[in-house]
User: Fold Dynein axonemal assembly factor 3 from Bos indicus.
Amino acid sequence: MTTPAGSGTGFGSVSWWGLSPAVDLQAESPPVDPDSQAETEHETPELNVLLLGSVDGRHLLRTLARAALWPRRRFHFYVLENNLEAVARHILIFSLALEDPEKMGLQERSETFLEVWGNALLRPPVAAFVRAQAGRLAHLVPEPDRLAEQLPWLSLGALKFRERDALEAVFRFWAGGEKGPEAFPMSRLWDSRLRQYLGSRYDARHGVSDWDLHMKLHDRGARVIHTREFRRWRDTGVAFELRDSSAYHVPNRTLASGRLLSHRGERVAARGYWGDIATGPFVAFGIEADDETLLRTSNGQPVKTACEITEHNVAELFREMAAWGHPRAAEGDPEQVQGGAEGSSEPGQSSQKFPGIYPRERMTKGLKTDEESHLQASSVCLTLPVFPSPAAPAPEPFTVHFLSLDSAHTLHHKSCYMGQFQLLYVACGMVHLLSAELGACVAPGGRLIVELAQFLVDLRQEQLQAFSSRVGELAQAAGFAPQSGGKPSDTFARFYKAGDSAPGHEDPAVESGTPPPEVLAPPLEATDPPSEDRTQPLESGNPPSEPLKLTSESQASLLEASVPPTGSQAPKSENQTVPPETKYPIPDI
Assistant:
């Protein structure tokens, strides 16, 4: 048996990472209206973004990291996923990104993020971190007061009570509620998925991976992905090997999810790995970079691999994110700087007060008396011109609101969401949720950005074109029109809400991806700009229309997303939510 090309089964039914590079959502949103800004006067303008299927928070992290380059705005991110495991990974990733730098350094945070986010197997220290964080979050989720105190950026108020209970169960499973690797045998599950996907081509899997890489991903713009790293990920699920290969042997429980399967004529709940085994996590941070030297080639071959570019981009991202979690750690403590100007400069009282000015005790040690007196006199002249630089203002707080899993078709019933969002982001696996009701939640003049299936290797070129055409039809039916004048993109489709005062106008930032010069407002010390899904599940409650059929029950084609839901489709039933804390036997698939 051989899986037919174009079936989309390699994408899986659960998305753990995005299939497009991270974007700055401020560059995609409409500019601040001067009239509305004048009405608010002293209030900071807000940016409300609704994201469907963003899965890994890369767009949110990128937006927060580049916020210093734009005028001050308060962010409200409304995230809607179709499984609670993705919500839990969002929370874990943000808690890691905002970790205190004194507790975890930049390199350790970056490496921990890469392994938890993109590796099927973890090192023991990283697995211990996941268990500790999951145990902490499991205690915070059922206690709203403590949650608001320790994680002020997180809002779970829109989740139903049963969803909060299931979310707590997910964290408890991650924390090791079921001991031992047999609770989630990742290596066996990965190999099982691979055998089912390749069929009779399993023995030639290295040739298949080389073909998919060179004839598909490279041709579609991901030339920096190296053969060795892509083949290693296809075989073992380890995309980022930052240490010796023998160190990766602990299953990554954050990639586990539950679903209902047919086993011996009965519907049973099973936990397994139902994610991507075809493309990999290299696209999100590994094929683009602000530093152009990372993308240069030598003799027609990229100098840097996708793993190296990803490490650099994530490290820069977390370095810029330090201002959000702990402003004093990133900008310096203004009280200490002012205290240094008033404090005494006598030896032994304090250490260095100003950068670049050494204590007099160190400078005059070992000198003769006349030289010492001359140096002390001259040191006064050296100290006088040095003044503490004004600290940059702390960034505006942001909030991540997680919406109920089945609320996409009911948001327009609530007045608080009608015309609320300036930007709507839809992942390629959630396109089937794009409707006129959802479009009513976007403010006039708002923007819509849809992720295309450019890097889904299972789809042929004609299927990619059909998917893009279908996205345009759904967007038009939802009340959006294509943006004109921008740079064509094979990765994203961009639209604006019909009724915009300037339909043909496009924000220059949308084309360039960087803030226009007239709106740049960097802090005084930031003189250089920083460098830098899921398909519809089988039991999602939004089945495809009759002409579209799956090859088997465990397959979930991306083509489901291109079929609009019918009016008779019912929302997702409660009995399809599988509490992860219950151990079920995993049947052979």
Remarks:
- Residues 306-325 form the longest helix (20 residues).
- The first strand starts at residue 46 and ends at 52.
- The two ends are 14 Å apart (CA to CA).
